[in-house]
Amino acid sequence: GESVRYMSLDGKWKFFWVRDAYDRPVDFFKEDYNVKGWDDINVPGIWEMNGYGEPIYINPGYAWSSVVRPVPPEVPEVENHVGSYVRAIEIPSDWKGMAVFFHVGSGNSADCRVQARRIAAGS
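^ that's the sequence the OP posted. Answer follows.
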């Protein structure tokens, strides 16, 4: 069965998409950041299948390699689509003092923060 200490984060999230990475909001994780005007998107979901950007059908390689020649570890800022997600949750008080794990089931990169403190980053 499912643990009583399990919280699904599926559902509506605030979402902001940009075509070029340099246009992304860089401090949207701050508690006082205003996400009014951002779209709602269902999570889990694929933003390209919800009207943002174009679907990319490749398995190996870089998503932007058809637009810009990849030069690792540099990441292109043009034609490198970025989606920013925000959702406020409240951790149950009886979880105090316990380890809490945040699991992203599918995604090719993430920078996860809780109260503006980075808890995870990577692919």
